[in-house]
Design a protein that fits this description.
Helix content is 5%, strand content 43%. It contains 2 helices and 26 strands.
């Protein structure tokens, strides 16, 4: 601050922005020190700190109706409607994780909008109405929910999968049947079917008129690595839909040794040591005694 002559006075003007944590009373003391005197504290003025933190959270969606596999475009608008700055502002949206965001600080009257998308799934189509709500949190306020936004989710493409075999031995075929049905209100074109665990099921499918269905029959040859529960899901898609998954189908696959597979290929009943017979039972053969010299 510099020197101060005899009889001279100096006034320093300064400001402090009160925080939510300062209330309800803010005490402040200054002190001064010189080379010629010990330090001195000033008087302690008391200021009453009142705060009315408030926040507005509004959520909207561009689409009122979509088909399974299509996107819903959400917008979450957060406004500081109180009289103090808000800190550590975050958006949490358990049902649309792309909407999660760290906003940070929000000054009085400040506003921010987070744009995000959610891709609908087959599960959304079962309920037909998808409701969504975001929750905003800040250091100065408890969690504040937005309004609830509802979007109708219609199924345009239904995919059902079945399998003939409930159990099999590795090396045997599983016979699948995938039925695609147009359950929507528009014709479906460029229909394709994908099946990572049964490639023979994959490929282009004919176009489907409203109400039309088609069934694809296909097979998968199990391997020793498939032993256990072999689960399969097919995925269909059309130009008018996003990807739509079928139900999951499972088959219990028992492992068979290579020698047993050779016997099966010849349709023989013989089984090797510890292998699985054609009826599912396990046999252990006892080797014959050595020949008598």
């Amino acid at each position: 601050m510099g020197d101060l002559a005899i009889g001279q006075s100096l006034v320093i003007d300064c400001t402090y922005v009160a925080r939510f944590d300062d209330g309800p009373r803010l005490y402040n003391t200054a002190w001064i020190d010189t080379n010629e005197t010990p330090s001195h504290d000033s008087n302690t003025p008391v200021a009453s700190v009142t705060a009315d933190p408030e926040i507005s959270v509004v959520k909207t969606a561009d689409e009122s109706a979509v088909a399974v596999g299509e996107d819903i475009h959400y917008h979450v608008t957060v406004t500081n409607t109180g009289d103090i700055a808000l800190t550590d502002v975050t958006i949490d949206d358990p049902n649309a994780r792309n909407c999660d965001a760290t906003v940070g600080d929000l000054a009085v009257a400040a506003q921010i909008t987070v744009d995000c998308t959610y891709t609908t799934t087959t599960a959304d189509g079962v309920a037909t109405i998808r409701s969504n709500q975001a929750v905003v949190d800040a250091h100065e306020l408890p969690p504040t929910p937005s309004n609830t936004v509802s979007t109708s989710v219609a199924r345009r493409l239904a995919v059902t999968k079945t399998v003939d075999e409930t159990t099999a031995v590795s090396g045997e075929d599983l016979h699948y049947h995938v039925t695609l049905e147009n359950v929507g209100d528009v014709a479906l074109t460029e229909v394709t079917l994908a099946d990572a665990n049964a490639p023979d099921c994959a490929g282009p499918v004919e176009d489907l008129d409203i109400g039309e269905q088609v069934t694809i029959d296909c097979a998968y040859t199990t391997t020793f690595a498939d032993a256990g529960t072999y689960t399969n899901v097919a995925t269909a898609e059309a130009a008018q839909t996003g990807p739509v998954d079928s139900n999951a189908v499972s088959t219990t696959v028992r492992a068979a040794q290579g020698v047993d597979l050779a016997a099966r290929a010849g349709r023989q009943a013989w089984v090797g040591v510890g292998t699985v017979n054609t009826d599912g039972s396990v046999f252990v053969t006892v080797p014959p005694p050595p020949p008598t010299p």
